[in-house]
Amino acid sequence: MIKKFPIVAAILCLGRCVSAEPLLMETASRVVAPGGLEVGLESRCGENKYVVEGQPGATWSQSSGQDGLFVRYGLSGKSELRLELPYGWWRLKISQNGSALLQKESGFGDLIGTYKTRFWGSGEGWNGAVKADVIFPTGEEEKGLGQGFGAEPGVMFGWSGVPCAVDSYVGYRWTGEYRPYGVRHNPSDVVTYGLSTRFGNDVWAVLAEAWGESFDTESKGGRRLEGTSGRRAMVIPGVRLRYGNIKFKAGYGLSVGPVRYRDEDWRVLFGVSWVGRASFTLRD
Which of 30, 195, 208, 262 could form a disulfide with 255 if both were Cys (CB 3.0 to 4.6 A apart)? Predict the structure, then answer.
């Protein structure tokens, strides 16, 4: 594999790799019931190995992971709020001519708040929904654990029933300027898109998702970084189980996009949460 863009760009993606579900994609049919509460943990880890032009014989191995604590609250039968605080880590090992250099960091990432509302459908059958993510710069940019203030609006359409469901998603992610290692950085704007299928019921389900991103050219220190625009994609099969008020999800993702733009060759995802009712009531 060959990477032409700086390694810091790959490391800093850690601050943006969390999404609404362990299998990445939010759906139009899924909205927490009025006054309902879901509290849980979503985790993922992955690895990428590659070589860099100009460094013959060198092997770069980057692994990273993230554990996100989240809370979802149902405002009505069609709207919900979500808040997530991730704790992330990354590890970079550079091996060349029998010697090795190791770099690693860990800490809290960027806080993510989400508002979602279903404008069409009732959960069963055809549904449409919109959401808005707001990313707050709580992560430490100097450690490659955050990317500053940002936002991602998105729209979802799908059909949900028993035993099958199909959903789609399109979003646009914007990130403001931030300064990793004291250097002014303007990351790419990103168009995200995905397609998911489900076979099962409320107790168990087999899931499959295809997820992609297209991004434009980044700039650093006021200079555009050539070769940083492109696209990447991942295919993720998984399972979901529910036992009473406890839900489990797990999946394994494989990158299928162009090699030079991958941030991970593979990814393992896991999620567990408790579903119940809050002792207070909010309305939208």
Answer: 262
